[in-house]
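Sorry to interrupt, but I need a hand with the structure work. Could you write out one complete protein record for me, on any chain you like? Just paste the record in under my message, thanks.

. . .
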Amino acid sequence: MRNKPVLFLAVILSGCTMALEQSAEQTWTVAKPLDDTVACIVEQLREGNKHYIDGYSSVPFTAGIVVPGKTYEIRPSRTMIVGADPLVIRVSKLSDTQTKVDLFSVRGFGDGMVKPHIGPCI
């Protein structure tokens, strides 16, 4: 009986660490410049998830620079499990007016809970 919580935690940890190790759950091409797309997604996640995603109501999302002027990754600024982001949104510049948005998440977290909020941006 004592091993069940440890096994449950191991399963959760293994799922959470795989968000970026898998291919994107969804990909969109957006007819907006890179910085405008990033700003829109961050704002929509901050506003839309305030009361929607359990455990993330007070967690702001931030955009980190991966490649200056070319690629950002948007993540929760804090996670419930260190080193395990349940979702990452990678935003890449295709041209001055087109941007690629890749949604990585664990076990459908992104499609059902995040996509409705970032809809105005994609």
